[in-house]
Amino acid sequence: MKKALITGITGQDGAYLAEFLLKKGYEVHGVKRRSSSFNTDRIDHLYHDPHEAGVKLHLHYGDLSDSTNLLRIIQETQPDEIYNLGAQSHVKVSFDTPEYTANADGIGVLRILEAIRILGLANKTRIYQASTSELYGLVQEVPQSEKTPFYPRSPYAVAKMYGYWIIVNYREAYGMYACNGILFNHESPVRGETFVTRKITRAVSKIALGLQNVLYLGNLSAQRDWGHAKDYVAAMWMMLQQDVPEDFVIATGVTTTVREFVKLAFGELGIEVEFSGKNENEKGVIIDIDEQRIMELGLNADALRFGQTVVKVDPKYYRPTEVELLIGDPSKAKAKLGWVPQYDLQALVTEMVLADLNLAKKDEHLKQGGFKTLNYFE
Ligand code: NDP
Ligand code: GDR
User: Fold this and answer.
1) Are the C-beta atoms of residues 177 and 217 closer than 8 Å to each other?
2) 373 band by pLDDT with thresholds 50, 70 and 90
3) What is the 90 CA–ligand 1 centroid distance (Å)?
4) Is 376 noted as a catalytic residue in this protein?
5) Distance CA 17, CA 327 (A)
6) I need a labelling partner for 55 at 20 to 30 A (CA). Which of 9, 79, 85, 150 fits?
7) Which parts of the sequence belong to the NAD(P)-binding domain (predicted)?
């Protein structure tokens, strides 16, 4: 039985990857951070009481900023594969916490590589590093491939650039099986609520039920290549099953603006939104409502009217330096790994909006029962 160690197992990708590897028969170990409240929501469905026999998922307290702890966990688990997904992964937040981001996202990678070397596991343990399309930053060429030069535009991307190169260096210097997946944005119903897609699908569902009035966003013109996390974790595993370690771009090859994503999300609920105005004054207004869809989905028709403003711009969500356009070229992964994504953007939006509508309906029931619901719109 193969053993895998996942840092960041409590995050979006960690949860999908753990499920994927357990289905493949792996024994899965995950590093979770100590928190004052439970932070394992995304993997609770995979978790069994460790006192039971035959448990395949094991969690260890740890942090990428603590070498001693990484050394101990790697020594105890002796993994065949390490997936380093742990990171302070929010680009905007990295401008607020640049030093911490550099420590966890940059030096954290080095700590793992050194632990493997010190423990004499360089010939046994294969390492996947969660690199990112944010490395491309300021557009040099499109579509972006493994050969496109990097120009990082945030403390997050600069930290990830260190992670990228230290992986390449240890591969070349010590012959380690270490590779970078340069993954473009990937989303899902368990995407963190402050990333733009999930922020949109949550808000759209709440607006359709009359639980929220307006969705405030930043740069509506940013373009992203959005895929589904489920497809992307399969690619991570494929990268570690090759004869020779290499770096791969994982993307859909299709790019979409934030504005268009908003329209698709409202459209899923039968609400047509049109944008007008410029920059800070741009807004999204309801121009059509599909009454039948509203009925089918049990939405609140009274809360929706023509001409209603449902999206506004708040410059506080702008970034000091922005990445305007990402579009990836996944040809290498398709040719060498045989990677074929199952989801397109429409299927992703449908899944996310319907999942968030269910959550919003729970909120609606709680509200009707006189209970307070969380209304944090960041
Ligand atoms: P999430 O933000 O959902 O998850 C991040 C995970 O890292 C969480 O489990 C978090 O723990 C953990 N973590 C944060 N800081 C530390 C630390 N100091 N030590 C140990 N663990 C830590 O990210 P995703 O799942 O979306 O992304 C996974 C990885 O892939 C990240 O490295 C991200 O930068 C990278 N990436 C993501 C892309 C995407 O579009 N999703 C695209 C390209 C790269 P906790 O739950 O306690 O906060
Ligand atoms: P990104 O994802 O920065 O690409 O990083 P995010 O969803 O945060 O932003 C995408 C684009 O949307 C614009 N935007 C907003 N973003 C947020 N979060 N909130 C808003 O209100 C808002 N309005 C507009 C942003 O300016 C940006 O252009 C994600 C993370 O998962 C990284 O860890 C990962 O490496 C990259 O994807 C690939």
Assistant:
1) no
2) confident
3) 8
4) no
5) 24
6) 85
7) 5-352
